[in-house]
């Protein structure tokens, strides 16, 4: 298959298994590997070109020797999908590369390049692609005539450590696995299969591997991770846009307006793809600072050995810093990344329209402003498109592309093309307050403030949310973003959705006390010079007490709930998020529910093993969520009022993921 040894097991089959549909039994395949590939009458050699992943590498491990090309990549990434290697990988890999390396390759889904593979003994020889088959055949003949030693990977012991070291390594791996076992059981199942093979022999190990594979496949984590795998690959399919025969025009040069944190990050992302960048600022010192930020982004990659100094220099030479709009005249696309000020943005786009080519794509990186308002002063307002990156833009994977009713399909196809060039995952969304990610997650912090106002400790809330699987809780996140930004963004939702917001005095009172978060040294947490966070209960206690006194919750005079569990907290914070995701689906803001799932995972750090916000909502059950929300709405207000789409799914027993039943005329045409 186009010069790959094997990319591994067909994941569409894996998806069937996670959904409980019958799929092929793998035990007969394992028997074939043992009897014929590994121990048959003829020796076998794997000739590996470029990729040997998952099941592909497991087949190669069963061979008596392995030869590969210089660009080969070898890995067992099954754990990324919530399962474990199922074709003997848990038994053979530790015996071929050693126990410690074998475990870390599986548990961390590490990819090994050809050179490292040779040193580890994972491959026996690296050869030029043109010589691959000849060299593999020569090695097979040598194995057959006895001039080279024939190894059976399954029974090798030369790389295994002594009993004491083995136990120590397994104990440490087991400890790590136990920490995540309740939500990601596959890690422990993998370690267990390895341990059984070492203590009871490889045959017993293969049997345990097969049992554990079945257990892993039926776990919620495998369902979630496999769902996310497909969701992420389907975001670039947009009906009526990507299926009408249009080809993306390649982007060779991008103009970036504004060299702040966001602008310099976007510029860096473009440079990494070899795209020329024209960076514009209004003052020379701002311009120098912007170029400096790009330089330090690249320097940091050189420091982490992700790039050579030569490469960094070559990429910096693609940047043209300027103070004049006229330098944008040859760009294929402009991305505006200035502060969130409507007047300023309107002026910028009126100017861009005059200086840029008529086929140049004009885009804004706004995260909060309606893009039709930004385009209001343009002669051709339909030209504008939203290109919303997440900070830091050269690191974060998600790229929201915002379209209006009038956006021409070619502009969307070109912008989707850019996202592929810069290796981002695009999600096409309609134009509304907050677009997809910020809108779906606005109840996240608001609900957290409800919990504080009814007596919950903010640090307990953050702990519960990290236990749920988020990278950080809502208050630590607020500190990171800056509460001034949080209040500013929150105001948009208060203005546009007045009936379903909760306005706690808590965060505005932090602002009034100059506790902006990390940047001011204190928010809900205190920060030292290296920005390490420590809870600061004494600092925020008076503000919390004041907020509780003003908030008058519960609204219906019922008693405040006592002693909420981490699960209770996670439900109260995420159920309204599911509810807002339902609104976004029902309004047609996104094309399909899996796009919201991808956006939640890549844009907000929602745990991938839960499959995304809508997938998780379905696993809990629409009726359960609607019932709880209804109860909270009477106590705490409109933030929790279940939307009609969620209520309908609950009553009709439909899944949220199916999307609204489209009865519009447009859909029938």
Automatic annotation (TrEMBL):
Organism: Ostreococcus mediterraneus
UniProt name for this protein: 3-hydroxyacyl-CoA dehydrogenase
Subunit relationships: Monomer.
Record family assignment: In the central section; belongs to the 3-hydroxyacyl-CoA dehydrogenase family.
Catalysis: reaction(s): a (3Z)-enoyl-CoA = a 4-saturated (2E)-enoyl-CoA; (3S)-3-hydroxybutanoyl-CoA = (3R)-3-hydroxybutanoyl-CoA; a (3S)-3-hydroxyacyl-CoA = a (2E)-enoyl-CoA + H2O; a (3E)-enoyl-CoA = a 4-saturated (2E)-enoyl-CoA
Pathway: Lipid metabolism; fatty acid beta-oxidation
Signal peptide per UniProt: none
Keywords associated with the record: Fatty acid metabolism, Isomerase, Lipid metabolism, Lyase, Multifunctional enzyme, NAD, Oxidoreductase, Peroxisome
GO molecular function terms noted in the UniProt entry: (3S)-3-hydroxyacyl-CoA dehydrogenase (NAD+) activity; 3-hydroxybutyryl-CoA epimerase activity; delta(3)-delta(2)-enoyl-CoA isomerase activity; enoyl-CoA hydratase activity; NAD+ binding
Top-level taxon of the source organism: Eukaryota
Cellular localisation: Peroxisome
Domain 3-hydroxyacyl-CoA dehydrogenase C-terminal intervals: 434-527, 571-654
Record-annotated membrane-spanning stretches: none
GO CC, alphabetical: peroxisome
Repeat among keywords: no
InterPro entries: 3-OHacyl-CoA_DH_CS, 3-OHacyl-CoA_DH_NAD-bd, 3HC_DH_C, 6-PGluconate_DH-like_C_sf, ClpP/crotonase-like_dom_sf, Enoyl-CoA_hydra/iso, NAD(P)-bd_dom_sf
Protein's UniProt keywords contain NAD: yes
3-hydroxyacyl-CoA dehydrogenase NAD binding domain residues: 254-431
Record GO biological process: fatty acid beta-oxidation
Stored CDD domains: crotonase-like (cd06558)
Pfam families documented for this protein: 3HCDH (PF00725), 3HCDH_N (PF02737), ECH_1 (PF00378)
């Amino acid at each position: 298959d186009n010069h790959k040894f094997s990319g591994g097991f067909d994941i569409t089959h894996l998806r069937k298994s996670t959904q409980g549909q019958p799929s092929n039994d793998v035990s007969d395949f394992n028997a074939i590997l043992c009897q014929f590939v590994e121990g048959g009458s003829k020796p076998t050699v794997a000739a590996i070109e470029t990729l040997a992943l998952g099941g592909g590498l497991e087949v190669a491990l069963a061979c008596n020797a392995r030869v590969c090309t210089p660009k080969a990549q070898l890995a067992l990434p099954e754990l990324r999908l919530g399962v474990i290697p199922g074709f003997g990988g848990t038994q053979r890999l530790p015996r071929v590369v050693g126990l410690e390396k074998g475990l870390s390759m599986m548990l961390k889904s590490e990819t090994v390049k050809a050179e490292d593979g040779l040193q580890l003994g994972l491959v026996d020889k690296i050869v030029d692609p043109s010589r691959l088959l000849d060299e593999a055949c020569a090695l097979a003949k040598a194995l057959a005539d006895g001039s080279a030693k024939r190894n059976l990977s399954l029974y090798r012991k030369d790389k295994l450590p002594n009993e004491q070291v083995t136990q120590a390594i397994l104990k440490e791996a087991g400890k790590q696995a136990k920490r995540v076992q309740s939500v990601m059981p596959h890690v422990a199942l993998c370690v267990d299969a390895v341990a059984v093979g070492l203590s009871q022999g490889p045959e017993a190990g293969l049997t345990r591997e097969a049992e554990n594979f079945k257990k892993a496949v039926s776990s919620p984590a495998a369902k979630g991770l496999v769902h996310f795998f497909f969701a992420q690959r389907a975001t670039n399919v947009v009906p009526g846009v990507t299926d009408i025969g249009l080809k993306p025009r390649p982007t060779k040069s991008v103009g970036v307006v504004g060299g702040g944190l966001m602008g310099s990050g976007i510029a860096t992302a473009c440079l990494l793809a070899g795209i020329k960048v024209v960076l514009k600022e209004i003052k020379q010192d701002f311009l120098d600072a912007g170029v400096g930020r790009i330089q330090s982004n690249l320097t940091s990659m050189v420091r982490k050995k992700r790039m050579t100094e030569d490469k960094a220099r070559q990429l910096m030479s693609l940047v043209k810093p300027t103070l004049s709009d006229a330098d944008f005249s040859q760009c294929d696309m402009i991305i505006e990344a200035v502060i969130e000020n409507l007047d300023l943005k309107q002026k910028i786009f009126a100017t861009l329209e005059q200086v840029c080519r008529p086929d140049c794509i004009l885009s804004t990186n706004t995260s909060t402003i309606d893009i039709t308002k930004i385009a209001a002063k343009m002669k051709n307002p339909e030209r504008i498109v939203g290109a919303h990156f997440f900070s830091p833009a050269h690191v974060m994977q998600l790229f929201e592309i915002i379209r209006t009713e009038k956006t021409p399909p070619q502009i969307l196809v070109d912008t989707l093309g850019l996202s592929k060039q810069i290796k981002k995952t695009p999600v096409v969304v309609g134009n509304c307050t907050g677009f997809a990610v910020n809108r779906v997650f606005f109840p996240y912090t608001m609900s957290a403030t409800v919990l504080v106002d009814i007596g919950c400790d903010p640090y307990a809330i953050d702990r519960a949310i990290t236990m749920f699987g988020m990278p950080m809780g809502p208050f630590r996140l607020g500190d990171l973003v800056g509460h001034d930004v949080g209040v500013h963004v929150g105001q948009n939702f208060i203005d546009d959705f007045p009936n379903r917001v909760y306005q706690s005095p808590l965060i505005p009172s932090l602002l009034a006390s100059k506790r902006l978060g990390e940047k001011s040294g204190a928010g809900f947490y205190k920060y030292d010079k290296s920005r390490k966070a420590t809870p600061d209960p004494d600092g925020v206690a008076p503000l919390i007490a004041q907020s509780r006194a003003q908030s008058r919750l519960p609204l219906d005079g019922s008693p405040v709930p006592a002693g909420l569990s981490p699960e209770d907290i996670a439900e109260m914070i995420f159920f309204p998020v599911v509810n807002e995701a339902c609104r976004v689906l029902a309004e047609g803001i996104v094309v399909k529910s899996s796009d919201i799932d991808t956006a939640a995972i890549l844009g907000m750090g929602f745990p991938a093993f839960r499959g995304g916000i809508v997938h998780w909502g379905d696993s809990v059950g629409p009726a359960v969520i609607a019932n709880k929300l209804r109860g909270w709405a009477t106590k705490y207000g409109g933030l929790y009022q279940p939307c009609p789409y969620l209520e309908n799914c609950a009553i009709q027993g439909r899944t949220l993921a199916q999307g609204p039943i489209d009865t519009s005329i447009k859909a029938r045409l």
